[in-house]
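Protocol step 4 of 5: obtain the predicted structure for the target chain.
Materials: sequence only (see below). No template structures provided, no constraints applied. The aim of this step is simply to have a reference model before the mutagenesis design in step 5. Sequence pasted as it appears in the construct record:
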Amino acid sequence: MLKLAMAQQFENLDGQLAVLDGPGGSTILTERNRKCFEVLDKQLQAGKKTIGIFYGAAHLPDMQRRLAGDYGLLRASEQWLPAWQLQPARPEKPAGGGK
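Step 4 output (structure tokens):
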């Protein structure tokens, strides 16, 4: 039930994130992203080819703009993976063939 309640709150998350992203961006988000890209640049200059960046969803619009504008990278695809099972669990049948 908790997952279902949280999922209902997440449904309107895009609108809430737009407030954080705003025209000048949130200082917290943009400064953390700036620092992230400083580290990314150092790793690329060191010759690293496989890099993972783990940040929350609110950071992603700014990160996507930076990747496109500063690095010429464009998103080629999108893949959604299920994180939660939200259907109610079916009751188990009693052992021994009972009804």
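Step 4 remarks: The chain is about 50% helix and 0% strand. The chain has a mean pLDDT of 80.
Proceed to step 5.
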